[in-house]
Amino acid sequence: MTPSQTPVRYDISRSDLVALLDGEPRYRVDQVWEGLHQRGLDPAEMTDLPKALRAQLEDLLAPGLALVAESESDAGATVKSLWALSGGSRVETVLMRYRDRVTVCISSQAGCGMGCVFCATGQAGLTRQLTTGEIVEQVIRARRRAEPRRLGNIVFMGMGEPLANYAAVWAAVERLHDDVGISARRITVSTVGLVPGIRRLAAERLPVNLAVSLHAANDELRDSLVPVNRRYPLAELAAACRDYHEATGRRLSFEWAMIAGVNDRPSDAAELAGIAKPLHAHVNLIPLNPTPGYATSGTPAAGVRAFQERLAGLGVNATVRDNRGTGIDAACGQLAARSIAPPADAGTGAAADPALPADPAAGRRSADLLLR
Ligand code: SAH
Ligand code: SF4
User: Fold this and answer.
1) In terms of DSSP bridges, do strands 318-320 and 78-84 run parallel, antiparallel, or are they unpaired?
2) Residues whose CB falls within 8 Å of the CB of residue 171, separated by 6 or more in sequence, listed in order
3) Distance separating alpha carbons of residues 253 and 190, to the nearest angstrom
4) Contact indicator for 105, 277 with CB cutoff of 8 Å
5) Cβ within 8 Å of residue 23, ≥6 positions away
6) What angle do CA 310, 198, 92 make, to 5 degrees?
7) β-bridge partners, 284
């Protein structure tokens, strides 16, 4: 949060709440804190509080996210929410309901400054960092939206590079773990490969899952797809991944967006196996989703399967990501915070209409969903 920004609901700490409730009976602090974090209530819904206090808290603890629009795909199993933040930036959150679990894909920045060429978020650049409260609130809202199902998994695969907003992201992880009650093994941080951030993460007290967006396993190709590779080349990245795995015991995964003729050749599989196998890493193959700024197509399904089999033959486990949300630009790399249909229209299909005018004020963004 920049100093000029007013803290929003989930930006406050427990000691801020203690100060805010000065003069109230002491048990109010627990009541409100649990109401916010465990029950996900708005202050107005906290019927165990006196009415005047509810109204006061509603004013003092303003929400950080205002719903601009919501769209559904996959017969309602995938829900993309477009939120306006204070100052007007927009971000997206994607809720994915699978048969056996519910996962939310959250944003850590409005836009992204990393410039990966195939990613809609990267194509637009960084608008601003999210605060801890704005990150946590995405989860709280998604958990309520998922009811009666139980939200189980959180992935930082929406808009933005989480390790480029490290302090806010880590404070959000701690809040989600300590106060919202989500286990660290159900939280996945996905990074483009910021080595200092990976090393910092390895020293934290909570062992979250780490996903690294690799996409190429030789420096020349990776430099051209993922510009940050010039700063943190593959040898350094692989060493940081190894140390992460050793420090935390968590399984690593590599993301690989499959781009026809670019990174789907047998030589690419061999190079990928050369990095993934010694690290015992799992590979997630994501058929490239179309974005306005990148003309090359995704690898066709048969090619994706062949690549997966080739990896298996080289001793590397890979899964092909279930490509949720492509019809509503909610799939990996497609999040661009464009204006979609208003919430009242959610589910009509109108929300998915790419012909709707884009919001010129919106930063592009790419969240990804997925996740198996
Ligand atoms: N910045 C982080 C997390 C957000 S991006 C990162 O890059 O890991 C989430 C995932 O979507 C990343 O693996 C990213 O490389 C991938 N992605 C981006 N654009 C994509 C596209 N057009 N098609 C498929 N996957 C894409
Ligand atoms: Fe940023 Fe990730 Fe997109 Fe790269 S893939 S531009 S790091 S959001």
Assistant:
1) unpaired
2) 132
3) 9
4) no
5) none
6) 80
7) 255, 319
Question: Distance of alpha carbon 80 from its chain centroid, rounded?
Answer: 12
Rounded to whole angstroms, how far apart are CA atoms 225 and 346?
Answer: 35
Give residue-wise pLDDT tens across range 231-275. Answer: 999 999 999 999 999 999 998 999 999 999 999 999 999 999 999
Residue 280 alpha carbon to ligand 1 centre in Å: 21
Q: Which residues line ligand 1 (CB under 6 A)?
A: 112, 116, 118-119, 157, 161, 190-192, 213, 255, 257, 286, 288-289, 291, 332-333, 366, 368
CA–centroid distance, 121 to ligand 2, in Å, is 6
Length of the chain: 372
Contact of 346 with 82, CB cutoff 8 Å: no
Q: What is the pLDDT of residues 85-129, one digit of tens each?
A: 999 999 999 999 999 999 999 999 999 999 999 999 998 899 999
In whole angstroms, what is the distance from residue 358 CA to residue 43 CA?
34
The C-alpha angle with vertex 105 and arms to 322 and 297, in degrees rounded to 5, equals 45
Task: Tell me, in angstroms, the distance from the centre of ligand 2 to residue 125's CA.
Answer: 10
